[in-house]
Fold each of these.
Amino acid sequence: MTPHRLAVLCVVILLTGCGTDVLATPGATGRSSGALPFVIPDPPQNPTSMAKVELGRLLFFDPVLSGNRDIACASCHSPQLAYTDARTVSLGTANVPVNRNAQTVLNTAFNGLTLNDRNPEASTAPMFWDARARSLENQARGPVKALGEMRGAAFDEMQIFPEVVRRLAEIPAYAAAFDAAFGANAISEDTIVQSIAAFERTLVDTNDSYDRFQRGEAAALSAAAQRGLAAFRRNGCDHCHSGPMFSDFQLHRLGVAGSADVGAGNGTFRTPSLRNISRTAPYMHNGSLPNLDAVFQFYRRVDDRLDPALRGVRGPDRNEAADVKALLEALSDGTFDTSAPATVPSGLIH
Ligand code: HEC
Ligand code: HEC
């Protein structure tokens, strides 16, 4: 464990103990209001520990989890690219494109946190553009088993986790790390995904300019960003992008062009969080919009009959665009962990 990571964890643990209700800050008004809490929720079935986090970090960066040993979680969720890949759609094993844009892993520890549910159950947190997986633990099974993402054709869905377990057991550093995190002979599909999820829960930024403003530090948000917040609300963006995550975590139909993807059915997709949005272009489930100006342009022309929550929604006009951008930038000061392990126990290049 590097000193930096150790410090981050200690802060997390310290703050977990304090139990302050930061969401109840006076002055936090409106549907897009509220700072992210300092307390990171973890499921009772998988309490976070330092040993799990450190193991999960190695697994996240190690291509040993892929059938062809050629791709890791971090290949599509790179710390240097705000835990995404800057591609329209991701490239899977053997460099074959997959069908969707990679979401960031940052702050997924808070998926499900909304104005109505301020203490969401981490074991049922919605994941993916179509919310088809629940919890970070279950999500992590997906890419390993998916043919085009990490599995490759050499193994079938039933074979891949037993194969990965066998590989990890043969690497002494992993055997020791699993012992430390879970006890003897504990390498399994469940403990693999539990340690990855524990690591992902440390990838948060809960004290950005916007959060500090919401906690009462008036000068933390520039005048432009404050005007942007007003414009964001006036234009109805917070009908869906509400709460501390700027998401209601509900499914909505926007009619994004250039996609045959039906999402969760009938072209509906989960409202994405706007946390760190200024660092995660291109946008939408198919990566079809290259920058925020294109997103604003999209909302100026959106067909408001497609979804009840689109009623009265307007894209920011030319005068408002810079201000709304300033607001969105205040959701990302870049204070998250961008480190990567120098090497991984398999010796593979990541
Ligand atoms: C080939 C690129 C690729 C690889 C490898 C990959 N991912 Fe992803 N990740 C994606 C894409 C694309 C999505 C969106 C998929 C969808 O919605 O169907 C995604 C979504 C996610 C999400 C959901 C975020 C949210 O807000 O719902 C998490 C968490 C995640 N990935 C973690 C991981 C982990 C952990 C691994 C390794 C076990 C991994 N990913 C491997 C491309 C990848
Ligand atoms: C009806 C609910 C709803 C409203 C209102 C809404 N959005 Fe969205 N937003 C979504 C959904 C759902 C997506 C993902 C759509 C997709 O990929 O097909 C999205 C995507 C985005 C994205 C891209 C996110 C990413 O990670 O790629 C941005 C940026 C965004 N919206 C900003 C805004 C702004 C600014 C407004 C106000 C003008 C707004 N939204 C209004 C539901 C909404």
Note: Residues 235-237, 239-241, 252, 254, 256, 269, 271-272, 274, 277, 280, 283-285, 295, 299, 307, 309-310, 313, 315, 324 surround heme C (ligand 2) (CB under 6 Å).
Amino acid sequence: MPFRSIFIAFVIGSSLIVAALMVNRARPAGDTSHPLPAFTRATGRCAQCHREETAAIVHQFERSQHSQANITCYDCHQALDGQDDLEHYTFVLAREVTSLNCQACHRTEYEQFARSRHALPAWAAVRGTARLSADQIAFGERYHPGAVDRPPNALALLEGPAAIQTGCLGCHDIGRPNPDGSIGSCTECHSRHSTSIALAREPQTCGQCHMGPDHAQLEIYNASKHGVLFNAQRASMNLSADPKLLTTADMPIPTCATCHMSGLDGLKVTHDTTERLSYFLFAEVSEQRPGYLSGQTEMQETCLKCHASSNVNRFYAEAEAVVSATNDVVREVEELMADLRSEGLLTPEPFDEAIEFLYFDFWHYFGRTAKHGAFMGGADFVQWHGNYELLLKRTELEEMAAALRRTGGRDEPGSASLVEHF
Ligand code: HEC
Ligand code: HEC
Ligand code: HEC
Ligand code: HEC
Ligand code: HEC
Ligand code: HEC
Ligand code: HEC
Ligand code: HEC
């Protein structure tokens, strides 16, 4: 071979090698930071097939803390006592991986979660006691009297099974009873194979369910000073910090998780999102919770990592004033509705007259929004999506009530427009 051809072959050959190295460098960290031999040891034969079958699952797992801690696919997927078997090649897997599989290694988190409103009360709101054992009902009632042993919400019954399954339960199945006797789903916040705390600390993750006019927490947060700063500065924050070591240096701006769950600067981490609350803000009329004092103390300990006590006290006093003012307005209209019912102008059934829907919007959308806005720094939500709407809807409700009284509940010419409006 003439020298020129050898030289050209050498140049082409080495360019290919350099190019290959550059491509390799550009691959995502997950592909190179876990060398294949160690990874194969940790996941065994599952990954051999699943690199072909469902490759993304293997990659998500590869990037997780579990993979680094040498947890295997089988550690989660094996069938435990009480779970249905799934014969899978040479393995016996759980037909459904549930919070029981997580609980085997994370008992504390499971126990805190199981006693929170994210567990049985969330399920009972939509399905009542369906599929719950007597023990589960008793367990849930111990922590949340009246919130588990109750009928399904009237709207769920009226809208029917298809709407419940993909609608209500799309959010409320965070607390579903599993066939193996365990409660709820851990993967709603952590996902199945990334099992990430960074993901769980993202406001957007909570906002999958905590959004919309009846619980606008995500919208309120995004409009608040906290949300604006977080969205601007998130790149510089360490969302993966170990919960037991999380400091305000990792996250100087709070997300939903910081206030409701995190153990900031030495505080206790909790999976019981009820612990730091002092009012039933979601209710028609918001009463204090049984743990009013401890709820406020625990939440305020978090605020105090970043704010002076004078500011926190003022903030709470102002928010509590909004709760009590909203309660006053709602009580007034609640009485009006009760009067119409006792005057025989409304049937005892819920949601069969237009005015009942308007009253529902009145407290469920606007009353709640005013209260949530006040506690989470959303001025626009206290005002234009809250108090202004309360005023408007109250006027409309009073006019509808007057029309009902005038006509004794029969249609009168012109009243149709009033109803169509809603
Ligand atoms: C011999 C190849 C092979 C091995 C080994 C293997 N799988 Fe699979 N697995 C498959 C195939 C093929 C599917 C079906 C994929 C589909 O439906 O698209 C599957 C499906 C699954 C499913 C979904 C089952 C369902 O019906 O819902 C799970 C979960 C699963 N595998 C987990 C595992 C785990 C965990 C291991 C190791 C303990 C493992 N697999 C080992 C090939 C394999
Ligand atoms: C931290 C626990 C955990 C680990 C580790 C884990 N899985 Fe899973 N996996 C789950 C859960 C939870 C589900 C969803 C529940 C179900 O469908 O049973 C799931 C579902 C799946 C599915 C069905 C997914 C779908 O959308 O159809 C496959 C396939 C699967 N896993 C394979 C694997 C493989 C392969 C590995 C290892 C690389 C692995 N899993 C490791 C918890 C885990
Ligand atoms: C076989 C035991 C085992 C099982 C089963 C298991 N985990 Fe883990 N998990 C671990 C270990 C070990 C770690 C790493 C702990 C550490 O680094 O301190 C971990 C870490 C985590 C973390 C923290 C991850 C991070 O980003 O720091 C989360 C969240 C988590 N697991 C959730 C789950 C969920 C959800 C399930 C069920 C779907 C589950 N785990 C099943 C053992 C397990
Ligand atoms: C899959 C849907 C879903 C996700 C994701 C979710 N939640 Fe919830 N959350 C609910 C439901 C449903 C309820 C209402 C439970 C009930 O019926 O009282 C609720 C209630 C709450 C409550 C009130 C508890 C009480 O005692 O009244 C807090 C606080 C809360 N969630 C915080 C969070 C935070 C913080 C996150 C994210 C880290 C989050 N949630 C993620 C569905 C979800
Ligand atoms: C987008 C997610 C989502 C959907 C869909 C959803 N909910 Fe909720 N629901 C929530 C969240 C989040 C809360 C907690 C609100 C709060 O505490 O501020 C909640 C609270 C409730 C409450 C008050 C708390 C309690 O336990 O009494 C009831 C009742 C309720 N939902 C019933 C339903 C019904 C019935 C449906 C379907 C007709 C439904 N929800 C659809 C997310 C959802
Ligand atoms: C409502 C969302 C949500 C649900 C549901 C949830 N987690 Fe978490 N989890 C979080 C958040 C947020 C953190 C990080 C807390 C922090 O910022 O310190 C966390 C942290 C963890 C950790 C790390 C704890 C530590 O101290 O190192 C584990 C393990 C864990 N979760 C397991 C689970 C298990 C098991 C379940 C189901 C029983 C579950 N999680 C359900 C949001 C959730
Ligand atoms: C700066 C701290 C902080 C942040 C950030 C925050 N919250 Fe809150 N949240 C509060 C306070 C304070 C309350 C009212 C507590 C009480 O009842 O005493 C509250 C109330 C709630 C409630 C009402 C429970 C009820 O009784 O109806 C839910 C649900 C909730 N927050 C979810 C979220 C979600 C989801 C996010 C993120 C999108 C979030 N929070 C962000 C501090 C915060
Ligand atoms: C991790 C730190 C952190 C936590 C926890 C925290 N905040 Fe903040 N907060 C901030 C930062 C940073 C700002 C923006 C201050 C500025 O404008 O520079 C802020 C702004 C505010 C503001 C608007 C500005 C002001 O001072 O009037 C209010 C109100 C507020 N926080 C209330 C609270 C309350 C109430 C809690 C607890 C429920 C809380 N914060 C928890 C960091 C935090």
Note: The two ends are 88 Å apart (CA to CA).
